[in-house]
Design a protein that fits this description.
The complex is a heterodimer of chains A (383) and B (400). A 6-stranded antiparallel barrel of chain A has the order 12-15-14-13-16-17. A 5-stranded parallel beta sheet of chain A has the order 3-2-1-4-7, with helices on both faces. A 4-stranded mixed beta sheet of chain A has the order 9-8-11-10, with no helix packed on it. Chain A folds into 3 domains: 168 residues, HUPs (Rossmann fold, 3-Layer(aba) Sandwich); 54 residues, SH3 type barrels, CATH 2.30.30; 78 residues, Translation factors (Elongation Factor Tu (Ef-tu), domain 3). In chain A, a hairpin with a 5-residue loop joins β8 and β9. The termini of chain A are far apart. In chain A, α1 runs parallel beside α2 and α1 packs across α6. In chain A, 23% of the residues lie in helices and 26% in strands. By secondary structure, chain A is of the alpha/beta class. Chain B has 400 residues and is α/β, with parallel strands linked by helices. Helix content of chain B is 38%, strand content 13%. In chain B, the strands form 3 sheets. A 7-stranded mixed beta sheet of chain B has the order 2-8-7-6-5-3-4, with helices on both faces. A 3-stranded antiparallel beta sheet of chain B has the order 9-10-12. In chain B, strands 1-11 form a two-stranded parallel sheet. The chains are: A alpha/beta (383), B alpha/beta (400). At the A-B interface, α2, β3 and α4 of A face α9 and α12 of B.
Chain lengths: 383, 400
């Protein structure tokens, strides 16, 4: 007598839904709008939200009360669920906490401690997000995964290869974070926001009356409360038993003369001016971080400019690895205006980049991404 | 078709229970502690419910305390025993010469497990007894773990994930011999198997209404007369000050009615459900290669089967089945609906990968043969769909 319960009143599910698309939902306006757009176009949709980080993990970083308004907080999971309820499609949470810690959080901390400035979002895209979500999507009968990234995918008419392109809206473009995707991943991914501006996305969200239409954008790294990296690194290291005891060290000038002391290389990033902790006659900038010697090298702004550098773990995303040096616009951090350069592919997934004119603060741990106009040729980690 | 096979997570409120509750929402809305007539009506209803719940477990009505649910009942039993007076909340003032000890098992529900971990933070020593591969605790190990300082034994009656029934009566006998208070979390046993607090020799027993067709947010704690236990919440004089807070009259009435229905239907329900469960289990095992029932040789609640399907991710199978209209679970549900590796499955010796390949089916009073047949078509289909793209699954070389 199940009818006694109204359980039957829930919508029926087709045994296998043809053309089912999985949407990676963060609970924000972008990915929620993706779901709304796909439904509007008549695709059956299933929402997947990744649970990546337990906000209670490092209680010393929390204020009192429940964690709020952060990516991966329960609020965001529930926001995604509210959108799914509102638009009436199934939605599930996928727990990827252990992969996230192993492949994003721990490397993030270790890189900082070794004097580099990592980009956690790229690691997450490369190593956490696409692979397991696509696998989950396929296991539950969806052949494709749509995300709220501002970027475009195009199939090359002749080679059939999938190309990764900048978003139409240059101010929102996120292609810089996506160079690590494989052909297999690209061929199964959709970025429906690639042709839209943020304002258009908000407008669609409002029209669909999404409960997150006016939700503010999250700008910070999802697992670092308040954007305070240093505090996070110290708290995480303590919990993970990574020793920070010997972190104090010297600040030296380009000639190696000691001109001050610092309390750990993880406080610094290349090009940084503020927070050097002493007054010099002229502005000084961090030129290099030598974790082995526990030294921070400082000097003039002019000494920050570099023409050539090495890149490793290179992925030629839209093209075959070229046999001869290629011309490209190279972007060396998220906010960098790409600059003309020559890129030479080397053995062992390495590359050498030579800018036409010197660029400021080439930072180990950041990504160098090679563009040909709108096409992302490839990218890799700055050594 | 929609098939709900997750009754260990929760059950629908029985229509008869709902009908019993309705008058107490708007009409007979009185506060059971009030002197006037509306209050007296509410009080009478609460006391009837107390009798009904007591009857389900062979207790006296005055030994039943209504709570907000299983979690509160477990917390009250544990903290109330370890910190029996209001003035001894901190570990510094525990009224024991040496560190008090608590014995529990590795497969308890979080309501007990996390309470015990909190006890440890407050200076109590806790022994987590291991279980056999079939999910049952070893009485000799229990005996060996008892110390003069042992202040409480808490062992669940039936496990939520496996259905494995623990030897509660035997443990009760040991505890009584040694004069140690004994608590059991019977949330998953109530209304599935007969419970008699005197046969079991328990001093404390936790119940939750929504696991047996009652409403959510109401539970009960059986406290044997004479048990040394203090309040857990502090407030007014309700329930003799032992559990203050205005009584949740509609909830309590619903729990009472649900307990009465369960008592009357227990034998017929459990026999009928066991037949369906066995049919599901046999059907799945015969159709799906490399599948195995966990805790198969333990005495189990009649409605539960936990099956591992080698090479699949249980989380994906739950989703794939939900998309086909079948609601099951991988184990204990957690806050966001995300799945964490099960401490129960690792406690019975499964590797992390094996633990992730398990699905719990839990049947209920309303489960029909047609629903089981539907599941017997959908589950093998979904499992083979998952295995096709599973890197972890290699078809066995030898023909099966």
């Amino acid at each position: 007598m199940p009818s006694a319960t109204q359980f039957d009143a829930l919508p029926e599910r087709a045994e296998t839904q043809r053309g089912l698309i999985a949407v990676a939902m963060s609970g924000g306006v972008d990915s929620s709008t993706v779901a709304a757009l796909l439904l509007e176009q008549g695709h059956p949709v299933v929402g997947l939200t990744m649970q990546l980080w337990n906000q209670r993990r490092l209680p010393e970083l929390q204020g009192p009360g429940p964690a709020q308004h952060r990516c991966c907080s329960l609020d965001d999971v529930y926001d995604a669920r509210r959108v799914a309820q509102h638009l009436r499609f199934p939605h599930y949470v996928v727990n990827l906490e252990s992969q996230f810690e192993e492949r994003v959080v721990r490397p993030f901390v270790e890189q900082y401690l070794s004097g580099r400035t990592p980009i956690a979002c790229t690691n997450c895209n490369n190593d956490v997000k696409f692979e397991p979500l696509l696998r989950m999507a396929r296991q539950i009968g969806a052949e494709r995964l749509a995300t709220g990234h501002y970027a475009r995918i195009r199939r090359h008419p002749r080679t059939g290869r999938c190309e990764l392109l900048r978003a139409r809206d240059g101010t929102k473009d996120q292609s810089y974070f996506l160079w690590g995707l494989t052909q297999e991943q690209l061929s199964r991914s959709d970025f429906p926001l690639g042709e839209l501006t943020k304002e258009q996305v908000r407008e669609i969200a409002r029209r669909a009356e999404l409960p997150v239409a006016e939700k503010p954008e999250s700008m910070e790294l999802c697992f670092v409360p308040n954007g305070n990296y240093v505090q996070f690194i110290q708290a995480y290291s303590r919990e993970a038993g990574i020793s920070l005891a010997e972190q104090e060290g010297e600040i030296v000038n380009e000639d190696g003369a000691v001109i001050g002391r610092h309390s750990g290389v993880h406080h610094f990033t290349i090009g940084q001016r503020k927070g050097l902790g002493f007054a010099a006659g002229k502005p000084l900038y961090v030129l290099a971080i030598d974790a082995a010697k526990n030294q921070v090298v400082v000097g003039d702004d002019s000494a920050l400019r570099t023409t050539s550098f090495a890149v490793e773990d290179v992925n030629w995303v839209s093209v075959e690895a070229p046999h001869t040096p290629v011309r490209a616009s190279v972007k060396i951090r998220h906010k960098h205006e790409p600059a003309p350069a020559t890129v030479e592919a080397l053995e062992g997934r390495r590359a050498h980049v030579t800018f036409d004119s010197p660029q400021r603060a080439v930072t180990p741990g950041q990504a160098a991404v090679f563009y040909d106009a709108d096409v992302v040729l490839g990218g890799g980690w700055i050594r | 078709m929609r098939v709900y096979l997750d009754h260990n997570a929760t059950t629908p409120v029985d229509p008869a229970v709902r009908d019993a509750m309705l008058p107490f929402l708007s009409g007979d809305f009185g506060n059971a502690s009030s002197i006037h007539t509306p209050g007296q009506q509410a009080r009478a209803a609460v006391e009837t419910a107390r009798e009904q719940v007591a009857a389900l477990i062979g207790a006296k009505p005055q030994e039943i305390v209504f709570t907000s649910g299983g979690t509160e009942s477990d917390n009250h039993a544990i903290f109330g025993c370890l910190f029996p007076s209001a003035s001894s909340i901190s570990s510094a003032s525990l009224d024991h010469e040496s560190t008090p000890r608590v014995i529990t098992t590795a497969i308890e529900h979080e309501a007990v497990l996390n309470s015990c971990q909190e006890l440890e933070r407050r200076g109590v020593a806790v022994t987590y007894l291991p279980v056999h591969r079939d999910g049952v605790v070893d009485l000799e190990q229990l005996r060996a773990a008892i110390r003069p300082e042992t202040a409480l034994i808490t062992v669940m009656h039936a496990n939520n994930e496996l259905g494995a029934i623990q030897p509660i009566a035997e443990i009760g006998k040991i505890a009584r011999e040694k004069g140690i208070p004994f608590h059991t979390d019977a949330v998953q046993a109530a209304a599935k198997i007969p419970i008699d607090v005197n046969v079991l020799a328990v001093d404390l027993l936790a119940l939750s209404a929504h696991k047996f067709y009652g409403p959510k947010g109401v539970g009960a704690l059986f406290v044997r007369a004479g048990t040394k236990i203090g309040p857990f919440l502090f407030g007014g004089h309700h329930q003799r000050g032992f559990r203050p807070g205005t009584e949740n009259v509609p909830g309590i009435v619903g729990m009472g009615k649900a307990a009465e229905l369960a008592r009357l239907a227990l034998d017929a329900d459990s026999q009928r459900i066991a037949v369906l469960r066995d049919r599901l289990e046999r059907g799945l095992l015969s159709q799906i290669p490399d599948s195995r029932v966990n805790a198969a040789r333990a005495p189990r609640t009649p409605n539960t089967t936990n099956i591992s399907f080698a090479g699949i991710e249980g989380e994906a199978l739950v989703i794939a089945l939900d998309l086909r209209g079948i609601a099951v679970s991988t184990g204990a549900a957690c806050s966001s609906g995300a799945v964490e590796p099960s401490h129960v499955l690792t406690a019975i010796g499964l590797s992390a990968a094996e633990a992730r390949s398990c699905i719990r089916f839990s049947l209920g009073r309303h489960t029909t043969e047609a629903e089981i047949d539907f599941a017997l078509r959908a589950v093998p289909e979904a499992v083979s769909q998952l295995r096709e793209i599973s890197p972890a699954y290699r078809k066995p070389a030898s023909a099966r």
